[in-house]
Amino acid sequence: QVQLADSGGGSVQAGGSLRLSCAGSRYTISGYCMSWFRQAPGKEREEVARTDILGRTRYADSVKGRFTISKDNAKNTLYLQMNSLKPEDTAVYYCAAGFCGAEYNIWGQGTQVTVSP
């Protein structure tokens, strides 16, 4: 199965932007549904964005209009463009993949995003 490696996290001030990357290896990501999740300290894991094999996308209300998920099959990489970042976006972000309609069973290692006021 495909393996995933997250990168691109960092520290920014509120209002700033970051782009997260999730590089696939061993196999192509084109046949998977993929999502970005995040987990803040003391909070449950939250799915923030999802894309399917047809390129359709869905977002959590908390990030709609600010985050954009995209998949570049040629580069075998999933992205999350995050704009207008807020302190409440601070979390560890994980990419995940799975067969559409099934539970996600492939996860990246996570990348920390910290947004200061």
Tell me briefly what this model is.
The protein is an all-beta fold and 117 residues long. It is built from no helices and eleven strands.
Please tell me about this protein's structure.
This protein is mainly beta and 117 residues long. It contains no helices and eleven strands. The strands form two sheets. Strands 2, 4, 5, 6, 9, 10 and 11 form a seven-stranded mixed beta sheet that branches. Strands 1-3-8-7 form a four-stranded antiparallel beta sheet, with no helix packed on it. Strand 9 and strand 10 form a beta hairpin. The model has no long low-confidence stretch (mean pLDDT 95).
Features:
single chain, 117 residues, mainly beta
Extract low-pLDDT stretches.
Answer: none
Based on CA atoms alone, the radius of gyration comes out at: 13 Å
**SSE pattern, N- to C-terminal:** EEEEEEEEEEE
Number of strands: 11
Rounded mean pLDDT is 95
**Main sheet specs:** 7 strands, mixed
Apparent shape: globular
Distance from first to last alpha carbon: 40 Å
Q: What is the quaternary state of this protein? A: single chain
**How large is the count of helical segments?**
0
- Binned strand content: over 45%
Structural class of the helices, strands and pairings?
mainly beta
